[in-house]
Design a protein that fits this description.
Elements: E1 9-14, H1 18-34, E2 37-44, H2 65-87, E3 93-99, H3 102-113, E4 117-121, H4 127-133, H5 136-143, E5 148-151
Parallel strand pairs: 1-2, 1-4, 2-3, 4-5
């Protein structure tokens, strides 16, 4: 078991859920106690292409993928900004907003950032929901090279 002082860089993975907010709060509190640097990451998955057409008579072209991605990026920037303002005072905080596969991006940033620990929440899905959607937390645990702390949803 590592000495707690060796946890110098904490990576906190967030989405826009309350569960993620709780994990971020916990991660920042831990970073304060350990005097650790924090990287906070949010990953937007590529939007599913669907036929969302507008009304050409009204001059509405509908929603196109770049617009959806811009909206996602703006929301992610606001999310991270709010979390850092609320919890990150006095800490060195890096922010990452990426597009891609959530698990792969978390693992990749953890390697590049040389994270000592990854902190994230879990939705706690069971049964068929878990079978269909899997668990990002479970996948990160399997592939991470550093400890992963999962903050439960309860």
């Amino acid at each position: 078991m590592e000495n707690l002082s060796s946890f110098e860089k904490i990576l906190i993975a967030v989405d826009d859920s309350e569960l993620s907010y709780n994990a971020a709060a916990y991660g920042f509190k831990l970073a304060h106690k350990l005097n650790a640097e924090v990287a906070i990451i949010h990953i937007n998955e590529m939007p599913v292409v669907m036929n969302v057409t507008g009304d050409p008579i009204l001059g509405d072209s509908g929603i196109i993928i770049p617009e959806v991605m811009d909206i996602q990026k703006d929301a992610a920037e606001k999310l991270l900004e709010n979390l850092v303002l609320k919890f990150g005072k006095g800490l060195i905080v890096r922010e990452y907003i990426l597009v891609g596969d959530v698990t792969s991006e978390i693992i990749e940033i953890a390697k590049k950032y040389e994270a000592s620990m990854i902190i994230m929440g879990t939705h706690g899905r069971k049964g068929f929901d878990h079978f269909i959607s899997g668990s990002v937390a479970e996948s990160v645990i399997r592939h991470a090279k550093c400890p992963v702390l999962i903050v439960p949803n309860k």
